[in-house]
Amino acid sequence: MYDDTCRFLAENFSADFASWLLGKSVTLTEIQPSELSLDPIRADTLIFLESDDSILHLEFQTLPKDNIPFRILDYRVRGYRRNSAKPMRQIVIYLKQTGSELVYQTSFTMERTRHEFEVIRLWEQPASLFLQYPGLLPFAVLGQSADAEETLRQAAQKVDQIEDPITQSNIMAASGILAGLKLEDEVVYRILRRDIMQESTVYRSIQRETQIEEKRTIALNFLREGLSVELVARGTGLSIQEIQQLQQQLHESAQT
Predict the structure, then answer these.
(1) What pLDDT, in 10s, does the model give residues 115-144?
(2) Is residue 129 part of a domain?
(3) CB 156 within 8 Å of CB 175
C-alpha cells in the first residue's frame, strides 16, 4: 500500500521529485519494468524515470531488507544492458524510522565487484522541504519535525490550496495513507478530509491492489498445496499468466 502510493506520486509528480533529488526541475518519463526484463511482481516497490541525459532509479521501502544492495546492482546491470551510454542514479528511500543498520547500507560488495548507491532516510529530511512541492506534500509528516501532527496539519492546509479537484483528492489520499506510518488513524482523519480522500484515484487504486494482493496470497497457498495452475486461476480469478509468475516466484524462493 505504501509502496504503491509512492509510485503513484513519483509517476504523476516527477518534476517535483526531480527538483528534490536532482536539484532541478526536468521532464522525466517512466520506463516500464518490461523494458528492463523485470518481473512485474519484483518491480512493485521501484520506479525508473528517464530524462534526456540520465535515468533515475527510485526504490521505496517501508522496512529494510538484506537483499536490497544486490537488487540495486541487478537493476543497474539491466539498465546498462538497455542503454550503456546513459548514466543511472539509484536512490533507496526508506519511509519508516527504524534502528536497523541495514538502512545505512550504500553498497554491494562481492569479491572484486563493488557497486554503490544512495540512501535517503525520510526521518532525517527536514519536513519543510516537502512542504515546498505539491507532489511531495504526503512525505512531510514522515520528515524531521518537532511535531508530526502539526506538520500534517500544515500539509493539509497546502493541499486545500490546490485548485484542481482531482489533484487535490489524490494528494489528500496519499497524505493520509503515508501518515498512517507515523500517526494513529484517528489523528489522521481528524486533520484530513476523508470524503475527499475516498474520491481519489490513488485511494481506489490502493483498494483494488489490496484485493489483488489478497488473491495472490490465496493463490500462493494453493500452489504450495500442489493445485494445478488452471485450478488456482479458476479459484482466484487471476489469469493463467499471473499464476505462472507466482509459481516461478515460489520456485526461485525455494532455490535461495
Answers:
(1) 999 999 999 999 999 999 999 999 999 999
(2) no
(3) yes
Q: Are residues 158 and 187 in the same domain?
A: yes
Angle CA 29–31–37, to nearest 5: 175
Helix 2-12 to helix 165-179 angle, to the nearest 10 degrees?
Answer: 150
Helix (H) or strand (E) holding 90: strand 88-94
How many whole angstroms separate alpha carbon 89 and alpha carbon 57?
6
Q: Most distant CA pair in the chain: distance in Å?
A: 55
Domain count, the chain: 3
Non-local (6+) Cβ contacts of 183 within 8 A are 141, 148, 149, 152
Domain end, chosen from 99, 124, 149, is at: 124
C-alpha distance from residue 131 to each of 153, 154, 185, 253 (Å): 11, 8, 21, 41
Q: Which of 103, 124, 145 is the C-terminal boundary of a domain?
A: 124
What pTM did the predictor assign? 0.77
Which stretches of 132-239 are DSSP H helices? 148-160, 165-179, 185-191, 194-198, 201-224, 229-236
**Where in the sequence is the domain holding 11, given as residue range(s)?**
2-124
pLDDT tens-digit map of 110-122: 999 999 999 999 9
First-to-last alpha carbon distance for the chain, in angstroms, is 26
How many CB atoms within 10 Å of residue 145?
A: 19
Distance separating alpha carbons of residues 74 and 238, to the nearest angstrom: 28
